[in-house]
Design brief:
Largest sheet: 6 strands, antiparallel
Mean pLDDT: 80
InterPro entries: MAM33, MAM33_sf
Pfam family, one: MAM33
Distance between the termini: 29 Å
Structural class: alpha+beta
Strand order of the largest sheet: 1-2-3-4-5-6
Shape: elongated
Organism: Citrullus colocynthis (colocynth)
Protein name: Mitochondrial glycoprotein
Number of strands: 6
Order of helices and strands: HEEEEEEHH
Length: 209
């Protein structure tokens, strides 16, 4: 009787694994045939004004840097944010950007926390959530006063700070590039994960395939 129960449990597990394997294969086929980015490829934008400093297929973020003729440096760290539930566009996540602007020979810098989301009417505009003045890149402790909430600033000052970033290259071509690049990178990582799980399960069921 014990032997019979063991055989039954093994058979049931094999059926469950086979069912999971079919679902994984269906999801892989769906991802491989996905055309979610095709309508946006012609607006892919460019990072040509910025040099890509860090971009790994194993990481979620990308780091860009640009040095202006004035000597100023603009560094951007960007990564996908949280899922936007109820959103039916090609890009289910907002892109989060941390932008730092520094001047040569000066230890202080300006830091902006921004977000980029898909907008079919006006490209991929960015929003500023926070603006900080830091005496140096080392002054990042929680006790450091970073300024008032950005939303409480005079609207004219908010607009001027956004124009300040735009004049330093944070414009639509760049934000379009970041949206496409980071979402495609995330899709590639998801597909790679699916294939690894499929391979692991398939190895355990050579007789059922």
């Amino acid at each position: 009787m014990g032997r019979g129960n063991q055989i039954f449990r093994e058979a049931r597990k094999a059926l469950h694994d086979l069912h999971l394997l079919k679902i994984l294969q269906s999801e892989i086929a769906h991802e491989l045939s996905s055309t979610r980015f095709l309508n946006h490829e012609h607006n892919n934008g460019s990072s040509s004004d910025f040099a890509v400093e860090y971009d790994s297929p194993m990481s979620r973020d990308v780091v860009l840097r640009r040095k202006l003729e004035s000597g100023e440096e603009v560094a951007i760290s960007a990564l996908p944010g949280r899922l936007r539930f109820g959103h039916e566009g090609a890009f289910p996540r907002e892109i989060l950007m941390k932008i730092c602007v520094s001047k040569p020979g000066v230890s202080s810098l300006l830091q902006f926390d921004c977000g980029v989301s898909e907008d079919g009417h006006s490209g991929s505009p960015f929003k500023i959530y926070n603006a900080y003045y830091l005496q140096s890149s080392a002054c990042l402790g929680p006790s450091v006063y970073r300024g008032p909430l950005f939303s409480t600033l005079d609207p004219r000052l908010q607009d001027a700070l956004k124009e300040y970033l735009i004049s330093r290259g944070v414009e639509e071509s760049l934000t379009n590039f970041l949206l496409i690049h980071l979402h495609k990178n995330e899709q590639g990582q998801y597909l790679n994960w699916l294939q690894k799980v499929e391979s692991s399960i398939a190895k355990r069921q050579p007789n059922q395939l």
